[in-house]
Amino acid sequence: MGSVAGMDAGTGDDSDTVAKEPGATEPGETEIATETGTIALERQDDRVVVRVTGALDLALAPRLQQFVDRAARLHPALLVLDLTEVDFLASAGMAVLVKANRNQVAPTQMRVVAADRVVLRPLQMTRLTDELAVYPTLAEAFAG
After folding, report:
1. HSE (CB half, 13 Å, CA atoms) of 121?
2. Which residues contact 82 (CB under 8 A, 6 or more apart)?
3. Rounded distance, CA 87 to CA 46, Å?
4. pTM (predicted TM-score)
5. Domain locations along the chain
6. pLDDT at 6 > cutoff 50
7. pLDDT tens across 52-75, in order?
8. Are strands 109-113 and 134-135 parallel, antiparallel or unpaired?
9. Secondary structure in 3-state letters for the chain
10. To the nearest whole number, what is the mean pLDDT of the chain?
């Protein structure tokens, strides 16, 4: 998770200088905020909800992938990606949705919550609504 920050200006030694990547998640971290948006992971019984707000773009997409990976390790019966508060959906964000859906292992099912045109239109234009289980509300996603 870390990256070498560079040589220590005082000693010229670069052997132990490590910095945390901006926005990198820690093992127990359940929420992250960046300049463009936030991601939160909530466990509810045998379900995990990953809520995304703001712009799901090139900056936030890798963080979403980290949270999806963490959620999958919990082996929930249902993984829900709640995009109701997303105000921009870039191709990088859509790529994470596809990868997450294709990598789910039984018995986990993945569902996406999206009601706003800002999110639904790109999913429809790329025909991802044919591949992803998309629901208008969290309650409907839970009900299936």
Report:
1. 8
2. 49, 50, 51, 52, 113, 138, 141
3. 29
4. 0.80
5. 26-143
6. no
7. 999 999 999 999 999 999 999 999
8. parallel
9. CEEECCCCCCCCCCCCCEEECCCCCCCCCCEEECCCEEEEEEEECCEEEEEEEEEECCCCHHHHHHHHHHHHHCCCCEEEEEEEEEEEECHHHHHHHHHHHHHCCCCCEEEEECCCHHHHHHHHHCCHHHCCCEECCHHHHHHC
10. 84
CB atoms within 10 A of CB 125: 9
Model pLDDT for residues 95-129, shown as the tens digit of each residue = 999 999 999 888 899 999 999 999 999 999 999 99
Which residue carries 């005082």 as its tokens? 10
Question: Residue 39 corresponds to which tokens in the numbers above?
Answer: 């991601």
Peptide linkage before 136 cis (omega within 30 of 0): no
Superfamily classification of domain 26-143: STAS domain (3.30.750.24)
How far is residue 6 from each of residues 9, 11, 12, 14, 23, measured CA to CA in Å? 9, 12, 9, 6, 19
